[in-house]
Structure formats: C-alpha cells, structure tokens
Amino acid sequence: MPMPEQFHDIAKRVNNWGRWGPADEIGTLNLITDEVVREAVRTVRSGRRVPLALPLRQDGVQTGAIPGRVNPLHTMTSVNWQLFGPDTVATSDDVVTMGLQAATHWDGFGHVSHSGRLYNGRPASTVTAHQGAEFGGTEKITSLVSRGVLLDVARAHGVERLAEGHAVTPEDLDTAEELAGTRVHCGDIVVVRTGQIQRYLGGDRQGYAYPSPGLSIRTPEWFHARDVAAVADDTLTFEVFPPEIDGLWLPVHALHLVEMGMPQGQNWNLEELSAACAEDGRYAFLLSATPEPFVGGVGSPVAPVAIR
Amino acid sequence: MPMPEQFHDIAKRVNNWGRWGPADEIGTLNLITDEVVREAVRTVRSGRRVPLALPLRQDGVQTGAIPGRVNPLHTMTSVNWQLFGPDTVATSDDVVTMGLQAATHWDGFGHVSHSGRLYNGRPASTVTAHQGAEFGGTEKITSLVSRGVLLDVARAHGVERLAEGHAVTPEDLDTAEELAGTRVHCGDIVVVRTGQIQRYLGGDRQGYAYPSPGLSIRTPEWFHARDVAAVADDTLTFEVFPPEIDGLWLPVHALHLVEMGMPQGQNWNLEELSAACAEDGRYAFLLSATPEPFVGGVGSPVAPVAIR
Amino acid sequence: MPMPEQFHDIAKRVNNWGRWGPADEIGTLNLITDEVVREAVRTVRSGRRVPLALPLRQDGVQTGAIPGRVNPLHTMTSVNWQLFGPDTVATSDDVVTMGLQAATHWDGFGHVSHSGRLYNGRPASTVTAHQGAEFGGTEKITSLVSRGVLLDVARAHGVERLAEGHAVTPEDLDTAEELAGTRVHCGDIVVVRTGQIQRYLGGDRQGYAYPSPGLSIRTPEWFHARDVAAVADDTLTFEVFPPEIDGLWLPVHALHLVEMGMPQGQNWNLEELSAACAEDGRYAFLLSATPEPFVGGVGSPVAPVAIR
Amino acid sequence: MPMPEQFHDIAKRVNNWGRWGPADEIGTLNLITDEVVREAVRTVRSGRRVPLALPLRQDGVQTGAIPGRVNPLHTMTSVNWQLFGPDTVATSDDVVTMGLQAATHWDGFGHVSHSGRLYNGRPASTVTAHQGAEFGGTEKITSLVSRGVLLDVARAHGVERLAEGHAVTPEDLDTAEELAGTRVHCGDIVVVRTGQIQRYLGGDRQGYAYPSPGLSIRTPEWFHARDVAAVADDTLTFEVFPPEIDGLWLPVHALHLVEMGMPQGQNWNLEELSAACAEDGRYAFLLSATPEPFVGGVGSPVAPVAIR
C-alpha cells in the first residue's frame, strides 16, 4: 500500500529538502547555532547532571521482535592478563556486539526511506550493506549539544504514564509546554515523556515494546513550526504503535527522518529528569547528547546528559 | 618482575583508597561537584562545539597488536527493508562488533589491576569473563561533564608533535599550563596534547601506535596534587611507550586506575581543539564526555565534545 | 555444596586421566583408530546421507537463559557490491556472531571443570578469557569420524518422545541397543534420541529447553564400559534437567568432560535419522562430525552427517 | 566494463540453469547420488583421516584487504563460572564473530552475481541485508560428502609450490590427474593443490593473499566436462590473481557460482593430504566437507576431512 494522500500533504508542509543546500547531511541540526548553544548554557543553574541513558546490558529493551537489533553482548577478551610477566600489571579488555539502535539511541537519516528517497532527496539506494549510509551517516553528527526542553506529557496529564495506545498530539505538547513554563524554539531538542519506559524498568519488556504510546502523525508539523533540532522520547517505537491510521506504518519516522531531516531519539530514560524538573519547575536545560560517530551508521547509541 | 620500590613510593603518595568511602566506585569523579560544573559552564563564550572523537570505522587505530581489541566492524541487518509491504516505508538497521577501547575511549577501573588489586582495594578477581567488572564498571559513570583544560604540550614546546619517545613530565605540564593561562584545579578534566594522533590521521597506523610519546610516571603526582577528575590524551598508549623504566610496564595506568581511581582517556583527537584554543587563547572549556554505560565495562567508547 | 560422595564414587570408576599419557588433550577420541574407521565405513550400504544439524539462524534454540550463549546473528558486509566497477561481477559477503554452543555442537573439555580440575588433571585456571582453553581446545579435534550408533530410546519405548523429566538410564540404553540390533563397542559415537527436539521444531523453544529429558548420572558408567568415543543427543541440556539429585548440577557433564575426557554433543536433530534407521532396521552408520577448529574453543558448532 | 565476449562464450558452454529444474538451489551437488557416495566409500583403505581446515584464530589468513571479512574473534562469556554455588561444577562459554569466508570455507551461490543474475537465473536482488541469500543459502547444502580427488598440480610439476602468477590450466589438471592415477568423474569433489598456503603457514600472510596462483578461466570447462560436484583449492582467491584478462575480475567465480551452480572452496590446507597421497599413490578418498548451515549464508566455514 502506497503512502496515503494525508501523509503526502503533511510531508509537503514539513519538507526541508534543499533548505540547507543540496549537499547537506545534518538537516535540522543546522539550527543549533553557536547562539543557541550560548543560550542553552545559560539555563544551567545548579550544575546537577541527570543521565538519560539506559545501562547497556544483554538484558536490555530488545525482545527479538526486530530482526538483528540485538541487545548488547559484552564479552571479555582478557581478564587480569599478565602480558608482561608475573607480578606485573594485569589488564582486562572487552568487546561488544550490539544493534546500534538497541538501547538509548538516535536514529540517523539512513534508518528510514520512503518512495525510494532519503532526506534531501538522496536515493534510498545510497544505503548499502557495504558501507551503510553513504549520506547522513551518524559520523556526520560530530556534536549534538543544545537547549533541551522536557515536555512531560504524562505529568501534564497528571498520570504516571500515558495509556498504551495514547497518541501524543500537538495539543498534548502544548499542555506540556505550558507546564514547562518555557516556549520551545528554534534549535531546541525536545524531550517528550510518556512514562512508558517504566514498564521496562519494572521488568515488563514485552509491555514496554508494544503496544506503546508515542507521537502522533500530527506532531511533526508542531516540531516543524517551532523549528526544533531534534526530538527524543522514552519509548521503543517513538511514535504511537500500532499506528493511528490503518496501514500507514511509521509515518512519524518518515516525516522526521526523510522529509524534515530531523534526528529522533528512542529509549531515553526520563524518569529522574522528570522528577528533577518537577521539583524546581525548570524544564529547560543544557542537553549534551552526541551520538557515537559510526561511519555510515543509520543509528547510534548515545549517553545523553541533562545539565541543569 | 614485581613492581619496583619507586612505583610503590609514588603509589603511596597518590593513593585514594577509602577517600570516598569503602563502597566508592567512581574515584576522582567524585571531585566533579555541582559547583565545579557551574564554573565549567561559565567558561563557555562562543558556543562553538569542538568534537574530540575519531570516527568509528573498520580502518581505525587498532593494528592487531592488542589481541581482541578489534576495530569497529559495522554491518547491516537490513537495508531499505519493506517490512510492511511494497510502497511503504523502508527501514535499514545496523549492528557493530568492536573493542570497547578500540577508538576514542575512557579506561574504566576494571581495565588494570596490580598486586591482585583494583581501585579501592577490590580484589582483581572481581573482574570476570561472566560479568566483566563487578566494581567500577563503566555504567557507574553516569555522567562525565566538567571543566576541561587543554594542556597543549606540543604547542608549548613549539613543535607540531612531540618526539616518539618523549615522556611528558610535570615540567611539561607546567609549561603547557602557563600557555593555557589558567590554573588546573580540583575536578577539572585535563586533556594533554602530544600531537601524536597526526600520525594516524596521516595514514601511519603503526607509527601512531608505537613508539609513542605519552605521560611520564612522574605525572600522576602532578594530577593528584591538583586533584583533577580525569585525564585524556591523543595517543594509543596514553603513557610513554616503551616505558621509562626497564621492566616497569604501564605504571601510569596502574597509578591512575588502581591507586588514584582516576579514569583516563585515549585516542582523543585534539587537533581541531588545539587550533581553536590557540586562536583565541582560551584553553578552558565545558567538556562533555560521558562514556557509553556498558554494564561491567572495563572501558567504553566516548564522543567527547568541548563546548567553548 | 561440594560434589557428593556418590559423584566421586562414579568419578573414580570412569576416570581416564593419564590413560593416554599426561599430555593427552583428546581423551576418548583416541579410541577412534584407523581400524575403527575402516569398520565404520563398512556400515555404509545405500550411500544416503542424513544431516543432523539444526539450521543456524537467529531464531535458534537459545532462549536467553544462558547468559552470552547467543543465537547466530548473521549480517551482511556487502550485497552485490561492484568493487570492480559497473557491469562487472558483484560480490556479497557475510559475518556471524554466535555462541559456539548455541546450536548443534560439541562440548570441548574446557567447557566444564569441577574441584578446580579439567580433563587429565589440568588446572581449571588454564581456561582464560585471553586464550580460551589452553588445553583441550576444540582445534585439537582435527577430525571426528567414526561408526555412529543410534540408540533410539524414544522409539524403543514406543513413544514419540520421552516425558519431560525422563532420565535416560543404562537400562534404557540396553533396550535401545537391542532395537538397534548392534552392540555398541570401542570407538563408537553413540547418538541418543529422546525426541525432545520435536518441541523446538514445533515452535516451543521454552518447552524444548526446560524441563528436559536427558542422560542419567548412571549412564557415564555404561559409556565407559563400552569405551565409546563420544555421545550426542537431541536436547539442550544433554542430561536430564532439573537434575536427578538435589543440588548436584550437571553431573553428567562433569563425568564426561572432566573425568572421562569424552566430548558430548547437544541439539542434534535426530528425527530424520530415526525414521531412516527404523525403515531398514540399520542403526549403525558412518558418522562424520568434525567440529569447527576454534583455537581455544570450549565448544564448537558441527554439521554432523550420518552416511548410511 | 561489462563482461567480455570471451566470458559469455564460456558461460554459454558451462551453463547449468534449469538442468535440475527451475527451483533448484544446490546445482552440481545434485550430481552426488547415493551411488557416487557408495563408490566414494569404497576408496577408503587405511581408515586414516586427514584434516584440511585451518585452525580458526584471530591471526588467520585475512589481511583486512577484503572489507568486513574479519578473522575469527573468539571471546569468553564465562570462565569457570560457578552458577550453582561454590564447590559445584564450573562452566566456561565462548562466542565468536567472524567472516563466514574468513578461513577454510565454501562459497555459496549468493556470494557472486553478474549481469544481475545468480545461479539458475535468480535475480541478484534476492540477496538482501535482511535475510542474506533467499535462494541457494548455505543451509540448503545439508550434506557435502563425496569422492574427493586430489589434483596435486604443484607436485605434478615437481615444485614445492606454483609460482605467484601461475594460472592453473586444463593441461595442468590433466597432468595432475595422470599423477593421481584415477579419472575424475561425475559427482567428484576436485581438490586442487598449488602449494600457495605454505606462504601463510610460513608466516607470510600478505604473500599468501596476493599475488596468487589459482585456477585459470579455462578450467571451468574442464570441470563442466567431467561434471564434478565441487572444487576447492589452497589459495585465498581461488582463481589466479591478478586475473589473466585485464579488467575481467573473478571470472572463475562467476562461471562456477553463477553459470554452473557449483560450490567452490578456498583456504584449504592440502599439505598433509599431499604427503599422504604421494606416499601410497592413492589420490582418491572419501571427502566429508559439509558446511555449517547458516540460513541465508553466502559462504560458510567447513572443517573438511579426507578419509583414506
């Protein structure tokens, strides 16, 4: 089934192709100017750092439902190895095999194509098994630091977490923005909290994965209007899943990654951040969230930190 | 050959065991207080972000000399896969296998033991193939953000890069500190530049690896005196290699990781940072360098960013 | 809880340490002489080859219960890559990450130790993260070809498969040997069929893994008396699980691998073989089952073939 | 540059598409009938087994020249792990990451395409990152056992090993067949010895890889005329490399894998076999060489054994 008219209508309205030139590979990250960063830095008051990454472990969020996206397998290549002889220093070394999108991560622009196209009109065929994403690989994101704003939709709704099938709407974002007490603006990284990750933290991996609350197909226009640089949330699917429109799969992925050229983050643990923001009523912070620079990566792990 | 007297003398002087309690697992990172971070934030002027990570690629810095520490092998598990049928969105996914210390990384406390002990007196045997580092795994470093100070030893010496066997001494650090125009203090992350990484960037992987300039056995006392939180440099071996004292292998590793409980970083690309600092004479910056939180990791990749 | 007296009594009776010299690393495989192979070859009548391996796939028998023993993750490093230019040949390449015991495999002697010892009295400490099994690694098994005899316990009992907790006893083996119509003798590879693998083949991975029928602690003496070279079966646990004696875990593993120095095979698919043997009443065949020669491997995948 | 006329001429003459029906996925392996195996078994005289696989180790034959085809990385996930408590059995477990064609292996039909086609006219696009080879994956080769014939070209020429650029011709095969004293016939596996692997065994990995003697573009017709089931040799490139005809890359691969549907084996260690055959003048044997059944594999490791 081809993408429906409704999708293409939105796509036209949020499309950023060519906006930063035909050679651009970082999309909305262009919006993070030095000035934006200077302002982001000014949000820091206490100096407290709040980590937003899930620990990387074999018992991670992946259930096996997404083929190949394996939880981190951490193994040792040496343990207290006395290379230099007895009574000398001993070294231990480790390796990992993991899906780049297995845990807390950013989706890169190579992750999704539709109608044969990637962000900025690049042919989908430029993603290959041989070199991954020729354009827009995660190594192109050499830094990702900006003002972060927590839109705590769950808290704004007065619930611990959103219901399973809750599609987070522009109206939800407005409400959460009101709670945040700051207007989301150009170059911000928006962090949307549904509370869904509590399921994983509580031991219910299947329940975390599916069904899941998440962003509605209507939110990309909201993000586009505000010209945000990136959006992350605390779910596996990022957008509401199963989808709102029958047969229209991953429309938010397609709009963000392909049309807007906007990185999106998944599996972020926002629980501690939510508590911290609620405590002092400050929902904006300096967010440092640079992904690992995998050459050709279509996704990449990140250990984001909110500095408040 | 057991560690010589000279080593034990220094070890006694820099030892931090028990300083933050017997249960402590993050050592000198305790020195990064909220106040330290607030001050670090105040160093930001332009908002420019300078990345310090090497891109992660199969053609990375590892030569095969360190068994098992493999360069990143990035492979695709799907390429434009139309899971949901023809004309729908297509997804691409990737995985990686890599040594956690293969590229730009932090050494964790599990990486080195001597005399059967790890940081804080933990038995070396608590590192196992089964779970990696039981204590001081890299997942315990939930954030690593502080004031960074570039000690540009190469530039202070007026050379492009230090000679192969140059052991960076406390006096070298003093000279570079003078160039930096700021005094290194408690909680700082010191970034020492030798220029050695130019060899790798220029295509000479073997020459980069060995022989290498790097920190002298005398520098841990300097770092201890200043109570820095962490130290990173732009070499593969971190310390001068081959070692200064015949038969005394990796003494700086043993002093930093075991005695002081201080994370150390390797393979940081400091070339762009060096140019930026020299340009405006500001050598202090906000450094965001949180490692990926591998549970039990004895090392971990990091994508550090200097925010100036 | 230390191993009970009962275990040590059996251990003494089946112990093969020193039998093939103090340097021996292949144990009972020494029993496969040229003469044994010549006789094995004589069992071939029809020329039909029956494969006994499970296909290697991500959806394999592992459930995640055994940490690190991951199902095969097969990924592509190139797909129709035209290295030499357009209109030339295109190549595809693949890699795998997998637990060496994840699917149809042999256990090597490094897999299990008890009381600090491996086969032939080697210290357990000779297995290291750095090099795997220093002694008795799977690369030492340069060939594994002999007469195979199917002991079809399920069929001998007239059932499709043995009950969950069924411990296969020496008496069961006697009954199945009677059905086989050939006496198991020195150098044979005994293949014991419980039918348990039907659970996995039918889609019930958990049910396959546990609880499982399997060999009783009393069978090693039977195998020792017959001086068989190796034993394989169609279960995940090899021996009955949970164990027969409370608190005595994996006693058959310990007796076979440590005391006898006898390789044991798991997850063998014996369904087609069972039908073939039943059809013509011939239960002996030429069995070719050489493991992949991983240096230091404590286990190794194998694609066994019965040639009838 | 498209494949030249000369290639297409040969291709027409050796093409097997449709020969075993349009659904066939095993090509010339269809030639190994029960009768062929019965005859193969009759070649066994002494019962001696000669292994033909290289040990699987990180220090293997790959030099890094073929992207992604990594040497085996063998790591431990547990070492003497006492899961069940102190004084119980301890278990060690291991995993591997490796290129499926990294060491001694068979090429599957998915490995090479030309002009958009795979064996039996399947579209090249049926090989995908998502599932590997949809047709002709290595799991389709459920057994590979037949009569093996060593064509010892080096010995027939009276040299230790062939010169670097030696293209093994049909005439060379004739000469070696004469030495072998047996006529290669339908269903045989031909094992061609150049002696090149001595370079690797002697420590010269680069010299082993390239330049290399190997099969000439004229040999596929020889193999086709004899209707052999498979061909293996003791080189990395299989065919002579650099190629005989300027700009015609891997023509033998294209003819064997695409046109004939004939598996080909590389990196086989034929040194011990050569000595054994020369000793008693018997060059035919039972060859057991079933690859690991990776689902969708375009290549697969094998531990071949010649049973004499």
UniProtKB/TrEMBL annotation, chains A, B, C, D:
Protein name stated in the entry: Cyclase family protein
Species whose genome carries this gene: Streptomyces silvisoli
Domain of life: Bacteria
Entries under InterPro entries matching the protein: KFase/CYL (IPR007325), KFase_sf (IPR037175)
Pfam family for this entry, one: Cyclase
